[in-house]
Specification:
about 375 residues; mainly alpha
């Protein structure tokens, strides 16, 4: 990656770490491993790792401490601690006990890195760019981290997927999407690097390197941009959700009006004027409410038809007291049967957003059934 890209990413990472420190400072249980502490630990470790990926910082650090490639060890240890922190935080989010295998796997990873480092890494020339392993110890050193990160990423991916599915509020769902994208990207980076390291070690001239290395950089940059976004304040996601919510309401109104039009063909409409989309844009919530009221009224009328006419197996009897009822033909009767059966599956005793969603689904079901 270009130096300015690495510097920007590292600066952004430190900014998020400083920002999240306030939450840790306010949390009195941070010493016991609270959720804010683990998430803050993740941000700090990522910031350290990203900083030492800058070549000038890497070389300057080694010159100051007087130990060759010590920055390489610090970078890998930081990323190992980062994935351990986010994984531990996920277990707290899920209110589940953390398996003993998680801290043991971290200790094993760090032990391998520390043991291998003086044997085969400290004896090498300075190597800030360690894409291609030359020695067996380099191979072991690199694969240890990549495999560890790739394996542990499974837990955050599963956690964020579960949280996304359980969440009903759009801004929170957007946050979980960003977090999920971050962990998937991180797993891809670690997995691709593990595969590439293996291939390049056995065949340094493999053509895979020319294709895979730029791909890894793109995914790495994506992950580096996404993960700070997951820690942004709620106001950012509220702002991000507004246009999405607006477009969803527009689509919801169109779907409900389509269902309303089918019902108006069969039942006297309780609301005479159905506004077009341009009229409704000024107050979508109000027009959504009107559409739902109209559908609920028509559902009640269809229910009355069903009770009076053998569950709508035939057209309404001539003596039915419905002053504005048009004559139904066979197609109208089939449409009425389909609408009645579908609308009866909707529970009307739910919150209004759930009611809108349910009747949108009902309208789609009727349309899929081929009823015009």
């Amino acid at each position: 990656m270009a130096v300015w890209v690495e510097t920007t990413i590292a600066t952004l990472a430190w900014g998020i770490a400083i920002y999240k420190f306030g939450a840790v400072w306010r949390d009195r249980q941070w010493r016991g491993g609270s959720l804010p502490f683990y998430f803050w630990g993740f941000t700090v470790c990522v910031a350290i790792g990203m900083t030492f990926m800058i070549e000038d910082v890497y070389l300057a650090f080694d010159r100051v401490v007087g130990v060759t490639n010590l920055a390489w060890l610090v970078t890998y240890a930081a990323f190992a601690l980062a994935i351990f922190s986010i994984t531990s935080g996920c277990f707290l989010v899920l209110e589940a006990p953390r398996p003993r295998l998680i801290p043991y796997s971290l200790l094993l990873t760090l032990a391998i890195l520390v043991i291998v480092y003086p044997i085969g890494i400290a004896t090498l020339p300075e190597k800030p760019d360690h894409t291609i392993p030359v020695t067996l110890t380099e191979f072991i050193f690199m694969e240890t981290l990549y495999l560890y990160v790739a394996a542990l990423c499974v837990i955050p991916i599963a956690t964020f997927t579960r949280l996304y599915r359980q969440e009903a509020v759009l801004p929170a769902r957007l946050r979980w999407i960003v977090a999920l994208g971050t962990t998937i990207s991180s797993a891809m980076v670690a997995g691709l690097k593990a595969i590439l390291t293996f291939l390049v070690f056995w065949d340094p001239g493999t053509p895979v390197l020319a294709v895979a290395y730029p791909m890894i950089n793109v995914v790495l940059i994506s992950a580096s941009i996404l993960w700070p976004m997951a820690f942004l304040p709620n106001s950012f996601y509220l702002l991000l959700a507004r246009p999405i919510e607006f477009l969803d309401k527009v689509r919801a109104l169109r779907e409900l009006q389509a269902l309303q039009k089918k019902l108006n063909r069969l039942c006297p409409p309780v609301i005479g004027h159905t506004p077009d989309l341009r009229e409704a844009l000024d107050n979508l919530d109000f027009h959504l409410y009107r559409a739902v009221i109209s559908i609920l009224d028509a559902k009640k009328v269809l229910g009355g038809f069903a009770r009076a006419n053998d569950d709508l197996s035939v057209a309404p009897a001539p003596g039915t007291v419905l002053p504005e009822l048009p004559d139904w033909d066979q197609q109208d009767t089939q449409l009425a049967q389909s609408l009645h059966q579908t609308l009866q599956t909707v529970n009307d005793h739910v919150a209004f957003p759930d009611l809108v969603y349910a009747y949108r689904q009902a309208g789609r079901a009727v349309s899929t059934g081929g009823m015009a």
